[in-house]
Amino acid sequence: MPAPENSPEIKSFWKRPHSLPRWFLVLFTVRALRFYFFALACLATLVALFYAEEDWRGHRAWQHFSEQSKDRGFSLDWRDYVPPPVPDDQNFAMTPPFAGMFDYERTATGTKWRDTNIWERIDRMFFDNNPKARGFGVWIYGRPLDLAAWQDYLRHGKIPTNYAWPVPRQEGQPAGDILFSLKKVAPELEALRLAATRPQSRFPIHYAELPLAIIMHLGYLTSASHILELRASAELDSGDIAAAFGDAQLVFRLADAISTEPLLVSGFVRCRMISDGIQPLWEGLAARRWSDEQLKALEERFSAVDLLTAADRGHRAEAAFTCGWIESLKDNFSSIGMVDGRSYFGDDQLVGRLVPSGWIDQNAVTAGRFATETLKPDIDLAAQRVYPDVSRSNSSLIRTIPMAPYTFAFKIIDMRTSSEPFAHAQTDINLARVACALERYRRAHGQYPPTLDSLAPDYIAKLPHDLFTGEPLKYRLDPNDSFALYSVGWNGADDHGAFPSPPPDVFDFRGRQARQRATGDWVWKYPSR
Fold it and tell me: Where are the chain's structural domains?
């Protein structure tokens, strides 16, 4: 039995000389140690209670809110947006061009594809949107593709050896040299043409991987569509109208192949493919090369496209996938850096172990509440209207949310809210439809009509209106046997048919064509004859 603290033995101990200070020895008496252990046990209990309470509150809040939202008709479960499987023999995505793209497995050392030649096949389709040739989709500035610039680029451009394109020994006409170079990928383009005969398309994306899901098919389709656009323009210039029309049609089929994908990025890529893909159509109309039957076929294809409905569906899916991504942080907190490839907290894994899972749930609630209650619709589907002011207001609302335990993940992931890309592409389609009708009218009457009202219903069933004003598209005849057709565009102001800025030879810091189109009108106009 130990001696009492006031016993003679203890008093004698304190009187002896020691190397340690007396206060230090007092801190480690039996009584002090007992107190420390008790205090630590209390602290651990408080911490455990804090985590348990936060986890319970967060889980309950998320479960309750997601159920309420679904009852109101807005599901926040990303699984509800994944398209159902389709039979392989009817599936565009289950064809040789895409074989192996999604046949991979995750390992501790990275991602491994079972087909070791997959990247070599993909690299064959590499096609740079190069600045020297002024990129693609320059019809929105009233310019045809510069085939001479593309010829020079393919012959002398700074292209990595792995991606080099064959060129004729002797330099010839630009269109001929371009068509010669593009023979390199003729088998791949033919495979795409055969794949396009299948009626459905559903790529086997690993949606459960959420932000880590591989979507390399988007880059492949974009590159293929650019090649087809260039080939179609070269075929038009060389007089092969049937081949040019087939390639122009195939571009829009490639865009349709991702129309059912719920990922908003897929919607953005589809819109860009459509807008850029109009280039050869515009050039054929400017040169008056398309037949009446071809113009009818183009108008029929475009009349079936409803990108505003796609935008509404895409934003709903974006909210659900954002919530799903946030929920996935419980298992892989470091994926929060997938937004821009950087770490937000130094050691993300350590922070992930310290953050209560309930805070993650509360961030999902923040995202869901923002999408379903705070955001105002910038699209009116019934009226086919787009409201840029609402879109800009929605974008600024995210910046007003403070960084806090229940908002930090939502702030970092930065859910996309604007329908601008869809408005761009739908307006481009509407302009193209009216342009096809105008050309058919000119063929029948020898001149363009004085007003657009003359087109319906003989040349177009119903005239589309300007998405931003609800009024008819602007139209005027030009003295050089041409016309200007335009929408007032994203700024909502009639700039009298002025092309948007920046011009097509301005590029952003990544070398990509700068095409914000925030100013000016969105114009369909041909070069002077």
Answer: 8-67, 87-285
